[in-house]
């Protein structure tokens, strides 16, 4: 029976097939008339035909107008047209069509059919209207008629399409079903008509494959066909991509307010401080607050327990195997963390003894705790995170109170209490998982030392009767890093990991743990990134207070996947719930596969309130299958930063008496159309009942049953578990929970190896989740035989990418074998796998684990560039290993390998093989080397020689000398191409870098006439040389080098202690001066990790007065007069170029390592002086300096760009990236200082400081106003509907400054799609504009002759100019003068503003330039007063447009 609704665009894959009708209607036959035009009807037919065929509708394609005859038409129940035939070729065709419909047949014109037969009025009247014009965009329509059979229960959908506007409307017998709303206009979009006895269904949807592939469109067309052909739609599926929400209740009392001083960071304010609001809503009692929540229709919020029963403020919750709810309560959070045993926090047990869904008993379990951030029932007690400890609490004497308090391990950071450990989860694999914020972990677990920061981890808990609580943690593993403070971790029913972080990153996916990257020497995993297209949320109130990331997830917490069956099928294992306390909501994200990775899309709110105290921080699947929500209920959510006028507390939160310590409620979000799930009651369950519970529809109970079976630690249940594995059935979500949990339970009991046949059979199970688990466990079941079974099963070619991914990771864990190496080499040859980043990383890990056998097998395959990169990485990994005893075999296979594979392997060997590491080559190995010298690609032969020399191959001296001579000749040839000369220098260093004579010849090539690029290239090449006297030789040459060549030479000198000492010798002897060094280099010398170098540098610097004063405020005060002084901006620009441009940009010049300084003229000199002279006063974490000391003596200083357990990457002050293997690191130290050094006063005289400040703050004729701090959108992503909406992006080939109408404009570079670069203001239409601010404000602080704008465009603006100069106001430029007055300049639609979509000229602005096919316009506003303008505010006008501002330049008087 085909019932219910498809939530398909959001929930990919839930309705790939259509179930049968209860009583199948007669099949329909429809003729589909197309043409050969640009809409490609034949291609669209091929998309729709199989979909309709599966639903009992047979489509037949034709593009011949001659088929419009009675004989042909009467063979069909309906006629669909999707074409642009301009006219009938025979009048009889028109008559045949009209008679056909009037006789009672169905007519289904789609999209462009409304511009068919354009001169036939009868045809236009039959359709109901004619197409007139369109733009494009991503949008959804509004259902106008909900009681029509076609739209009854149909929710609409969203897609990119052409925005049709129609004309010649025939409203006779026409009913409009859908409209496309544009401003105040409702454009008819889908409609029905009757004509005689016939019916007509038309929709304007359908320009290209994006709409035609959309399930919502397919359902609409199916329903339209069936209605037009006279069928009953009662049993036909409907469609919606989001549920209908309940309306706000009207029986609520008015909010009451009280006076209070509350920090408020306005979305339109500049960064740097907070405004204040003085009205604070009073808290509501539970029975009133609950009325303010809205939910999807058919859901209801019910109270389970409140603060009155709990006796405190809830912080975390979890259920045990009896269905009891355990809740941690806090008074100490956030700033009053107490010593062990002295806290004021508690854990209570909440019970519903009569089963009515309301707590009727609360029992104290443990007290004297302090900030217990997470709890997990385990082994009859609770595992509790209470930083710095993880505890195990248990009641052993039956009084209900914990008498065992055992510290399982210690090491969680306590510096910031909202950045500690959280979200304990029991995993399918019987490990305990959790999340961690930036307070980090430093400690020892199971004899292994750990030091990691924010991200995800797991630990192994084992039973041990020798310890008080009977449990011990034997291993801790850090899984992956996140980019922000992290408070949320969740698992799907098949064990896939997701999480949430703060600061604009609501949901991440963890496909591969660190341990697999760590198998590959030098491979860095990077941090997990947001998998949602953006960070926006959808609160139901504007009473939202946020510090940053306004309008979106800034405090996202929790990440719980729906893993029960009480909610509708659309939720099952496909939706994740993220709480956001600042938005007063719980959001539902829909998970969609993207290769081996996932994407997520914000679907709808499960829960949202307009009560300002509502603050959900945890949402979990409860024992009844409903979601339970912990409402922290707090008006003050903000932890940090500390607003002006407030103090920072001891544990990182700003201090305010308004923080609530008493309120908190736990709700059940009940689906009213379900009876809920039957509790499993596992406390007294028999072993057989526990096994049976592994099939329970709710994963909460299944996990308890699995854990309890492991607590028993008896293998008597193994046969029953094996029987579950044999069950081939799957549910509607494609899962077999019983088989899945049975496999992992067998593994936990150590019995998996007793059932190799069952595990092998599970590799072919109908459920992909079961196959994936079998892949993960098969090696445990049978060792080598298990691996062979894995390979034989075809798992590497499984239809499910998660199974293939698991197979690769299993091979990465397997013992090296020829079979495994061959299998990975074959898998890599599949381009589609190698191009998937996550899958490619898994391939790399598997290949590296099987390196010898993989490299031997790779030579017979053809690889795409991405595949060759994997081959090179694996070769580098192999070469850098401690043992390479199989080198002879690998070299032998290279002799017959394909050239590109040979080159990739040799490149990897050359990059990874350490100098001085000999190889025991056999005769065959040496023969292979000789063969490679003649057969290897020419570019690789020098590397072969270098490697042969390192390996100890004899008899190659003459060849090496000859090649070196040739390469040195190229280097010395001043007429040769610089690129070729530098490449030759690199090759020379590769195989002769230890020779002083060779190094000297390379240095000799760097003459005074050499280009800076060549000189820098030679010194960068020499940085890898090991010549003994290289350092002193470079130091001796420093004085004669051209200035442009010195930075690379100094990098080489200062990177190692020996040349650094030679440099200090030269300074001490008066041959060189410290002023040759940049300030950051002096700072690095003074902080050098080599104590002798550091002390000597400090002494020499102090003798020359080069050390900065540690009292930075004193320095600022000493320079106060210079800071206020009027300087020389021309000299200031020279100083900027000399001292600042290598890290900062200004007006497009310089490097962007630190912040861009363009537009600093709007800030006062005093503010800039503090940033320059005391850069570490308020340093952001991403600008902190790290110092790395390598084992070979190299010293690097820079920003930490990336890290893993095996490698780190630093970005230095020269914008150079340095990747270093952890095995090569002696020390890595984080400084509390900014990478920007202190001591600029030592580099410049006071007057020069004044000149630099004058340059940075100069208000010449034109002053650029930076928009980077107020920009609201990334213009290279879709700006109006969807991030992937191509036509709605504003893109330039480069983002360099531009001059328009003789006015210079500074553009914000979006850096691909990472940086917000334009201002988009509020608009009521689309998806993005409604979330934008209604105004933004930028500083000005100068009088202005004119304010020049790159603007005048927007969404839903005019497509033609206003004829009489009238028009609605799109945007107001509001000038705020220093005297407190304001002045408005309204900019009108059709006069100043036009649509962005293509060039449209309007009288009040000029065309500036094209951005692909779109436009940007120029206009200017002239102030009425000559006074100083403090701020410029851009305010959204009252019309329906969404205006854009790209750049602002002020022209001074």
From TrEMBL:
Highest taxon above the source species: Bacteria
GO molecular function terms noted in the UniProt entry: electron transfer activity; heme binding; metal ion binding
Keywords of the record: Heme, Iron, Metal-binding, Signal
Annotated Cytochrome c domain residues: 1127-1260
Signal peptide: 1-22
InterPro entries: 6-blade_b-propeller_TolB-like, ARM-like, ARM-type_fold, Class_I_gatase-like, Cyt_c-like_dom, Cyt_c-like_dom_sf, DUF7133, Haem-bd_dom_put
Pfam families in alphabetical order: Cytochrom_C, DUF7133, ThuA
PANTHER family: LARGE, MULTIFUNCTIONAL SECRETED PROTEIN, LARGE, MULTIFUNCTIONAL SECRETED PROTEIN-RELATED
Name by which UniProt lists this protein: Azurin
Source organism (scientific name): Fimbriiglobus ruber
């Amino acid at each position: 029976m085909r019932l219910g609704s498809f939530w398909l665009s959001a929930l990919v894959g839930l309705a790939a097939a259509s179930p049968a009708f209860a009583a199948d209607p007669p099949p329909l036959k429809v003729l589909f008339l197309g043409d050969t035009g640009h809409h490609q009807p034949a291609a669209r037919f091929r998309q729709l035909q199989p979909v309709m065929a599966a639903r009992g509708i047979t489509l037949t394609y034709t593009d011949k107008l001659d088929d419009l005859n009675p004989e042909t038409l009467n063979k069909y129940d309906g006629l669909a047209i999707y074409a642009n035939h301009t006219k009938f070729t025979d009048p009889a065709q028109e008559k045949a069509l009209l008679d056909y419909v009037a006789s009672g047949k169905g007519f289904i014109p789609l999209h462009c059919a409304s511009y068919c037969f354009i001169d036939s009025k009868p045809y236009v009247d039959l359709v109901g209207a004619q197409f007139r014009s369109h733009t494009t965009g991503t949008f959804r329509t509004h259902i106008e008629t909900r009681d029509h059979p076609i739209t009854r229960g149909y929710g609409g959908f969203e897609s990119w399409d052409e925005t049709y506007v129609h004309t010649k409307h025939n409203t006779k017998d026409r009913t409009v079903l859908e409209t496309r709303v544009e401003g105040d206009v409702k454009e008819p979009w889908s409609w029905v008509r009757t004509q005689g006895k016939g019916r007509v269904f038309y929709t304007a949807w359908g320009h290209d494959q994006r709409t035609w592939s959309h399930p919502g469109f397919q359902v609409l067309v199916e329903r339209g066909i069936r209605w037009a052909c006279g069928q009953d739609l009662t049993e036909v599926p409907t469609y919606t991509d989001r549920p209908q929400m309940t309306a706000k209740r009207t029986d609520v009392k008015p909010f009451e307010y009280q006076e209070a001083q509350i920090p408020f960071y306005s979305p339109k304010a500049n960064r740097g401080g907070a405004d204040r609001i003085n009205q604070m809503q009073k808290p509501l009692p539970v029975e009133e607050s609950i009325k303010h929540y809205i939910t999807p229709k058919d859901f209801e919020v019910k109270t389970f327990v409140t603060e009155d029963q709990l006796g405190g403020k809830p912080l975390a919750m979890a259920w045990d195997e009896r269905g009891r709810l355990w809740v941690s309560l806090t008074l100490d959070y956030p700033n009053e963390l107490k010593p062990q045993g002295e806290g004021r926090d508690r854990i209570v047990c909440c019970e519903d003894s009569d089963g009515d869904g309301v707590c009727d008993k609360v029992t104290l379990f443990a007290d004297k705790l302090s900030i217990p951030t997470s709890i997990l029932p385990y082994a009859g007690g609770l595992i509790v995170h209470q930083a710095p400890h993880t505890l195990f609490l248990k009641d052993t004497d039956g009084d209900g109170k914990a008498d065992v308090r055992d510290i399982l391990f210690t090491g969680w950071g306590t510096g910031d209490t909202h950045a500690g450990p959280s979200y304990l989860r029991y995993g399918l694999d019987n490990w305990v998982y959790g999340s961690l914020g930036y307070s980090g972990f430093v400690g020892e677990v199971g004899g292994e030392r750990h030091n990691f920061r924010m991200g995800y981890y797991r630990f192994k808990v084992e039973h041990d009767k020798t310890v008080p609580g009977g449990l011990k943690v034997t291993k801790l593993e850090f899984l992956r890093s996140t980019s922000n403070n992290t408070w949320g971790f969740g698992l799907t029913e098949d064990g896939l990991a997701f999480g949430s972080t703060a600061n604009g990153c609501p949901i991440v996916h963890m496909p591969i743990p660190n341990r697999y990257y760590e198998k590959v020497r030098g491979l860095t995993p990077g941090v997990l990134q947001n998998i949602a297209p953006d960070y926006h949320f959808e609160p139901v109130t504007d009473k939202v207070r946020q510090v940053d990331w306004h309008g979106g997830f800034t405090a996202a917490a929790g990440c719980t996947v729906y893993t029960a069956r009480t909610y509708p099928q659309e939720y099952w294992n496909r939706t994740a719930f993220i709480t956001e306390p600042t938005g007063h909501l719980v959001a539902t994200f829909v998970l969609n596969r993207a290769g081996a990775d996932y994407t997520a899309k914000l679907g709808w709110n499960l829960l949202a309130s307009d009560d300002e105290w509502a603050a959900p921080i945890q949402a979990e699947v409860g024992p009844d299958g409903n979601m339970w929500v912990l409402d922290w209920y707090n008006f003050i959510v903000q932890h940090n930063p500390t607003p002006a006028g407030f103090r920072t507390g001891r544990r990182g939160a700003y201090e305010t008496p308004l923080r609530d310590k008493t309120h908190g409620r736990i709700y059940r979000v009940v689906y009213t159309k379900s009876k809920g799930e039957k509790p499993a009651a596992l406390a007294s369950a028999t072993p057989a009942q526990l096994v049976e519970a592994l099939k329970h529809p709710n994963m909460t109970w299944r996990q308890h049953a699995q854990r309890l079976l492991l607590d028993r630690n008896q293998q008597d249940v193994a046969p029953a578990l094996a029987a579950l594995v044999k069950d081939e059935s799957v549910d509607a979500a494609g899962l077999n929970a019983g088989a899945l949990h049975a496999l992992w339970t067998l593994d936990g009991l150590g019995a998996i190896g007793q059932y190799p046949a069952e595990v092998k059979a599970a590799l072919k199970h109908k459920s992909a989740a079961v196959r994936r688990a079998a892949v993960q466990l098969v090696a445990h079941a049978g060792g080598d035989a298990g691996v062979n079974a894995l390979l034989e099963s075809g798992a590497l070619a499984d239809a499910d990418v998660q199974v293939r991914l698991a197979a690769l990771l299993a091979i990465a864990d397997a013992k090296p074998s020829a079979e495994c190496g061959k299998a990975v080499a074959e898998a890599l040859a599949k381009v589609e796998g190698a191009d998937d980043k996550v899958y490619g990383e898994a391939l790399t890990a598997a290949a590296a684990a099987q390196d010898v056998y993989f490299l031997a097998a790779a030579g017979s395959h053809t690889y795409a560039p991405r595949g060759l990169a994997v081959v090179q990485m694996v070769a580098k990994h192999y070469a850098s290993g401690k043992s390479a005893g199989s080198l002879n075999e690998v070299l032998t296979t290279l002799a017959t390998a394909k050239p590109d594979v040979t080159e990739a392997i040799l490149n990897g060997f050359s990059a990874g093989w350490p100098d001085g590491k000999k190889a025991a080559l056999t005769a065959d190995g040496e023969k292979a080397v000789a063969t490679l010298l003649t057969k290897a690609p020419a570019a690789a032969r020098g590397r072969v020689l270098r490697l042969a020399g390192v390996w100890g191959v004899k008899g190659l001296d003459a060849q090496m000398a000859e090649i070196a001579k040739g390469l040195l000749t190229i280097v010395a040839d001043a007429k040769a191409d610089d690129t070729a000369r530098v490449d030759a220098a690199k090759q020379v260093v590769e195989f002769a870098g230890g020779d002083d004579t060779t190094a000297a010849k390379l240095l000799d090539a760097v003459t005074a006439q050499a280009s800076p690029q060549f000189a820098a290239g030679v010194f960068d090449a020499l940085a890898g040389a090991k010549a003994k006297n290289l350092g002193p030789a470079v130091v001796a040459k420093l004085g004669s080098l051209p200035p442009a060549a010195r930075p690379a030479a100094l990098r080489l000198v200062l990177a190692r202690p020996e040349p650094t000492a030679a440099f200090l010798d030269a300074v001490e002897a008066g041959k060189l001066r410290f002023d040759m060094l940049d300030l950051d280099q002096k700072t690095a010398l003074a902080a050098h990790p080599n104590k002798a170098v550091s002390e000597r540098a400090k002494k020499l610097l102090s003798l020359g007065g080069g050390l900065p004063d540690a009292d930075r405020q004193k320095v600022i005060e000493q320079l106060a007069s210079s800071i206020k002084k009027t300087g020389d901006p021309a000299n200031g620009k020279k100083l900027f170029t000399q001292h600042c441009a290598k890290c900062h940009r200004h007006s497009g010049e310089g490097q962007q390592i630190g912040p861009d300084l363009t537009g600093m003229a709007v800030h006062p000199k005093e503010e800039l002086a503090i940033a320059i002279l005391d850069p570490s006063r308020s340093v952001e974490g991403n600008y902190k300096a790290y110092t790395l000391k390598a084992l070979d003596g190299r010293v690097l200083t820079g920003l930490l760009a990336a890290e893993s357990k095996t490698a780190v990457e630093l970005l230095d002050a020269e914008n150079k990236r340095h990747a270093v293997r952890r095995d090569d690191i002696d020390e890595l130290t984080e400084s509390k200082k900014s990478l920007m050094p202190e001591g600029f006063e030592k580099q410049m005289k006071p007057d020069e400081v004044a000149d630099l400040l004058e340059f940075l703050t100069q208000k010449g004729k034109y002053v650029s106003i930076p928009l980077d701090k107020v920009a609201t959108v990334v213009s290279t992503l879709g700006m109006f509907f969807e991030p992937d909406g191509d036509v709605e992006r504003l893109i330039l080939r480069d983002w360099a400054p531009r001059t328009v109408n003789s006015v210079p404009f500074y553009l914000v570079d979006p850096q691909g799609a990472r940086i917000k670069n334009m201002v988009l203001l509020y608009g009521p239409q689309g998806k993005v504009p409604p979330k934008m601010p209604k105004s933004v404000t930028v500083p000005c602080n100068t009088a202005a002759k004119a304010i020049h704008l790159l603007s005048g465009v927007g969404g839903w603006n005019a497509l033609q100019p206003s004829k009489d100069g009238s028009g609605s106001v799109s945007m107001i430029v509001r000038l705020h003068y220093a005297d407190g007055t304001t002045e408005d300049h309204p900019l009108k639609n059709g006069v100043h503003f036009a649509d962005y979509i293509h060039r449209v000229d309007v009288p009040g602005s000029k065309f500036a330039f094209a951005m692909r096919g779109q436009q940007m316009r120029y206009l200017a506003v002239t102030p009425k007063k000559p006074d100083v303008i403090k701020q410029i505010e851009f305010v959204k006008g009252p019309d329906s447009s969404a205006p854009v501002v790209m750049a602002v330049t002020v022209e001074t008087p």
